[in-house]
Amino acid sequence: MIAYALFATSRKVIVGPDTTIALLAGSVIAPLAMGDPARATALAATLALMAGRCSCWRPPRTRQRRDMLSTPVLVGYAAGAALVLVGTQLPVLMGVALPRDPFFYRVYDALQALPHAHWPTLALGVALLAFVLVLSRVAPRAPAALLACIAPCSLRSPSSAGARRRPPAAAARGFPAPALPSLALADLQSLAPVPSRSLS
Questions:
Q1: Distance CA 53, CA 76 (A)
Q2: If we measure between CA atoms, which residue out of 197, 196, 200, 182 comes closest to residue 43?
């Protein structure tokens, strides 16, 4: 992240996870990983290094290809990614399982499963969404989404109030040692077109 902030060509840089890029990267990584979490991690790390290299030291013609994309295309892609993310969060918001993945099928299944929803979870989710929307209008500079994330963390159920807290197993082992991902040349060739597509 420090190298990206120092060498990127833009003065305004967002250094963190991006939903649209995550969907694009996940669609490529998932078939190559074949269900192996360690392989998926190596592929994601390699793709991040390749994309960072293209972002910081891309050739001049890359920007020309990127500028050829019209605003409606970019807005449409971002809107489609937002709908996909909304669909993935509906089961969590309602506390029920929704079997079908396509967005409109999932919305239909959510409406059908509404009588079986977990109402405390749904009420909390809707209240937090209303809080974010209202605070964004009343105080645009306030970090509404961050406050909405912090608020539920301060709530504790009576059963968990006296529970003994233990660190996760991963935290108990400490931080992993830094290492470069180890992949075959065929994997690198499969990942190579992805940064160019995301930049162009």
A1: 27
A2: 182
The CB density around residue 29, as the number of other CB atoms within 10 Å, is 21
Tokens 């995301």, residue located: 198
Inside any domain, residue 177: no
What is the predicted pLDDT for the residue at 167? 53
Residues 3, 42 within the same domain = yes
Closest listed residue to residue 194, CA positions, set 83, 66, 54, 72: 54
Distance CA 136, CA 143 (A): 8
- Are 57 and 7 in contact by the 8 Å Cβ rule? The answer is yes
Domain span at residue 80? 69-116
Identify the sign of the CA torsion 114, 117, 119, 125: negative
d(CA 144, CA 132): 5
CB 98 within 8 A of CB 90: yes
Q: Are residues 134 and 102 in the same domain?
A: no
CB 90 within 8 A of CB 110: yes
Q: What's the structural domain count of the chain?
A: 3
- Full pLDDT tens readout for the chain, 200 residues: 677 677 766 666 666 666 667 777 888 888 888 888 888 888 888 888 887 666 555 555 545 555 555 677 777 877 887 888 888 888 988 888 888 878 888 888 889 988 888 898 889 889 999 999 999 899 888 888 888 888 777 765 544 444 455 555 555 566 667 777 777 788 778 887 765 555 44
